[in-house]
Amino acid sequence: MRDLIFIGHANPEDNELTLWLRSKLINEGYDVECDLTCLTGGEDDYWKVLQDILENRACKYLLILSKNTFQKQGVIDEWEQVKSISKRHNLKDFVMVLKIDDVPFDVRIGLNVKNQFRFDESGAKALKKLIVKIDQDNVPKQRNTPLSINDWLKNKHTTLSGVVKKKEKFYSNWLSIPSLPPKLFFYKYSNDTQAQAILDEINDYPIVRHDVYLITFLSDLPIFSLKHQIEIKYTARFDVNANSAFHRFESNDFPNYDDLRRLLVRLLKNSFSKYLLKRDLNVYEMSQKTLCYYYKKDQLELNKVHFTYEGKKAWKLLIGEFHESFWHYGISFHPLLYPELCFSLRAHLVFSDDGLTIWNDKKKVHKARRSKGKNWFNPDWRHLLLAFIKSLSDDGSVIKLPLSEKNILQIPATTIQFYSDLGYEEPITNARIVPLDYYDDEEDHFDDEEEEDD
């Protein structure tokens, strides 16, 4: 029975990426092997072992295509065999190519006609497409329980020295929202034009429109539109307990449980966005309409921020030189209601020629991100995030988001920390995997919201 996915790759150059991919697919429930895992050492004929797996068990052969791939005789031999197996057994889409480097599509005869997943452009998106394709092709699943990424970290073939037993603190990318005002207020208008006219009058506090409703933490709204010079009164007003969004309830009336959660997320998103713009941060629209907030050159003194990490003073540049251009560190964000009430932050790098205007060419930006970002390790990314968060606080300890005249959301100016009895050793060389999804991956949030802010 063909029930196994086999990953072909250049050894040792692409080992870590192979093991990372294997863990991702195992986490989806598939049985996955590569030469690093099916060959333990001491085999009388290791090529015979691989041949037997490919000939009799493999239902998919994933080839990691890099600049090193076809420099390896073992990969060349595998490539010829899997082409033969596919033709001989009439296996549809048996061979899939995962392109991770800027190499020609036709570097090998027959390569350009195979399914190719562009990990060199967006690893996270390519991984999602790969999983969808594997699922559509009904590849059998062997496991129902997700495995930890520790399965990858512990592997003896990685450049990490592995998981070790030690007390360790981990900084998340979550900004805690300690509490919410007790009530959300709903204002109903005769039509959506009237609702929009009043919405346009509110600049200082978060407010969103849903059809003919305005939803806000404000207990009063203006009844006069300066733009239209007319009086506009709501036809109904009611309030809802904000904490109801965290306890499922059944209702046929608006807002039901799902409505309330979506609207609360939109309000929180609106509040943080207003706050960032009022602090003169700039906005760059990335792929999938993700908004990245960043500083221009000289907005910060010497383009850097001083902060405290583990009781020690530190500083980090948020804008720096990149060849003849400039890089800018920025964030995007999304409110989460579960598993923590928080703002989830994502790191981004954008680039400009003059320190002011971000490049319009998104492919050029993406290529520069990978070039610049691959030289940074975990501490670099952590310190950049902590420095950026510190820049959003007037006193260095609290970020104050106005929600209404009476309510100010006070957010600690540091991320949520977690503690563990296990840790891992930092790589002892620079030969480590470049994270494939630390830039542009779309997060699949619990209770993700499709609606945009009005």
Plain-language structure description:
The structure is a single chain. With 454 residues, the protein is of the alpha+beta class. The protein has three domains: 4-158, Rossmann fold, CATH 3.40.50.10140; 168-177 and 274-424, no CATH class; 183-263, no CATH class. Helix content is 26%, strand content 28%. It contains ten helices and 23 strands. The protein has helices spanning 15-27, 35-38, 46-56, 73-88, 123-136, 150-153, 192-199, 257-278, 362-373, 378-391; strands at 4-8, 31-34, 58-65, 95-99, 115-118, 163-171, 174-176, 183-188, 207-210, 213-216, 224-225, 230-231, 236-241, 282-285, 291-294, 304-309, 312-317, 319-322, 325-336, 342-352, 398-402, 408-412, 417-424. Strands 7, 14, 15, 18, 19 and 20 form a six-stranded antiparallel beta sheet that branches. Strands 2-1-3-4-5 form a five-stranded parallel beta sheet, with helices on both faces. Strand 9 (207-210) and strand 10 (213-216) form a beta hairpin. The longest helix is centred in the middle third of the chain and has 22 residues, at 257-278.
